[in-house]
Amino acid sequence: MRYYPVNLDIRDRHCLVVGGGSVGTRKIKTLLDCGGRVTVISLEVSAALDTLARSGRVELKQRAYSQSDLEDVFLVIGATDDQDLNRRISSDAARQNLLCNIADRPEICNFILPSIVSRGDLTISISTAGQSPAMAKTLRKSLEQQFGTEYADMLRLMGAVRKKLLRQRHEPEAHKPLFEQLIHSGLRDLIRDQRTEDIDDLLYRVLGEGFRYDELMQS
Predict the structure, then answer these.
(1) pTM of the model
(2) Is the pLDDT of residue 214 over 80?
(3) How far, in Å, are 91, 117, 135 from residue 112 at the CA level?
(4) Would 130 disulfide with which of 20, 65, 106, 180, CB 3.0-4.6 Å?
(5) CATH number for the 14-113 domain, one of 3.40.50.720, 3.90.1150.10, 1.10.10.60, 3.30.413.10?
């Protein structure tokens, strides 16, 4: 099967997770990191989930799943070890045209969750279309070594530069060569090595006056 790659904006969207064990808790944390409003239905509650519920970050309903739990839901994730229940969740979601993922059962999902490398606003997704989770995990570990935390800072800087250029009424199409010059002038390595003065010199050469690293990173 070939999947259509897409990044979903789930900020303030109602997301339902059925299953509160270790797998479900991992899914819940990712949804929260992306701004989702998460409700959890589960008789089993991991220690981490209990902490999230007590802090008010998720709504926990410690009971059995019901089809009515799907009302006003944007997406649902089934993460139980009861395969009959997982299939029922998938079937119920399909009848309501909901986005549905069942953990480790791609054949009853209408979307799958890739393996992810996250560095701030940089997200790299790896998918093997469900054929080899082990290969996806190996690739993720390799990419984690290749893409360090400096990429997060570099993206923050690029975003701040872009906003400042737009405020100065620069045409967006004129930005591309400027950003390409920054990228190909070793900016990433300068950020990784925290060479602030050299970063400021590079910003001045490419962008002119008024672009300083510390100020941009605080904007």
Answers:
(1) 0.83
(2) yes
(3) 16, 16, 16
(4) 106
(5) 3.40.50.720
